Amino acid sequence: MSFSVVIAQHRAKSILSRAIEHNRVHHAYLFSGPLGVGKEALALEMAKALFCKSEAEKPCNACANCRRIKTFQHPDLVFIFPSSAKNVDEERAILDSVVANPYRRDKPWATPTIGIEKIREIRHITTLKPLEGRRVVIIAQADKMTIPAANSLLKILEEPPDTMHLILTASHVSSMLPTILSRCQEIRLGPLPDNEIEKALIEREKIEPEYAKLYSRISQGSYSRALEWLDESFGKQRERAVEFLRCCLKDAKSQIDLVEHLVRSTDVKTIKDILSLILLWFRDALMLLEHGKAEQYIINFDQLETLDRFISAFDFIDFPAAFMHVENSIQMVERNIQINLILFVLMSKLRAVLQLKGRQL
Ligand SMILES: [Zn+2]
Known about the structure:
Elements: H1 10-21, E1 28-32, H2 39-51, H3 64-70, E2 77-80, H4 88-100, H5 107-110, H6 116-126, E3 135-139, H7 147-158, E4 164-170, H8 178-181, E5 185-188, H9 194-205, H10 209-217, H11 223-231, H12 234-247, H13 252-265, H14 268-291, H15 304-312, E6 314-317, H16 319-334, H17 339-353, E7 354-356
Parallel strand pairs: 1-4, 1-5, 2-3, 3-4
Antiparallel strand pairs: 6-7
Helix pairs in contact: 1-2, 2-3, 6-7, 9-10, 12-14, 13-17, 14-15, 14-16, 16-17
């Protein structure tokens, strides 16, 4: 199937395939959607399709042009991205990581902005004739453009050269200039279904099926997030989540110590991950109560015994209240309000929803 590098996103693929087939490709596209759903992967596949020499389905992934796009060696492909790289070698290293896996996010890629000098580069390039009749310019994470950069891009969009196709990708469309948005055809990419992430983890990363299922369920529709879980020693974060729950039943001093240690030794993202794993733990505990040890219902399938000890330690667990308290805390952590306090309050709220039988976990 065409665009096979891109996981799911069947609607977007079919719109673009049809545009290529009928030779009705727009001059400017905006691929929007959450992080890690394949926006850059799709932009690169679209570039391949535009240059592909195959008479059959495009992109073929086999012709010289498809291969040159894949490795960023095509002279008529320009790929701009937010970067703190200090020199050409560092930029190349980032591109190499995109070549290896367009879903994998690197730290330098995720933080900085796209400055006006990058857009000036594009404006300069557009004055030159492309070697193969057309040029594809991809601006990845275009929502990271500075205001001067965005204004400069607008000038290109107002009078785009006939030979140029511009593809922007963005997660936060609302922060972009409306005058840019109105000149692009937006194609929205939604979160990926769990089963598609699971399949891709098994096929592409050679992950054992049970673990693929687990990671897919905690990745919130983002394949990049699933890859991050693989890198981040998932087991360690889960231990922290269980330790947090155990600590809910301890005295105030132990709780303060644990919260302070967590906040000192991790970052906001890790705290959110730990809270998400606490949610998952409650979800599995509920499943275990309702369905017994039927593994198909349990995501933390390798922790059945610990989960079993957890539920049998309590007379009653108020699950709806537990879900609500943890979800509220995740939202507050996202807004970066007094994280110590949020976690400390969460502990006391969870203590209230867990009615102990009188023995320790
Ligand atoms: Zn090809």
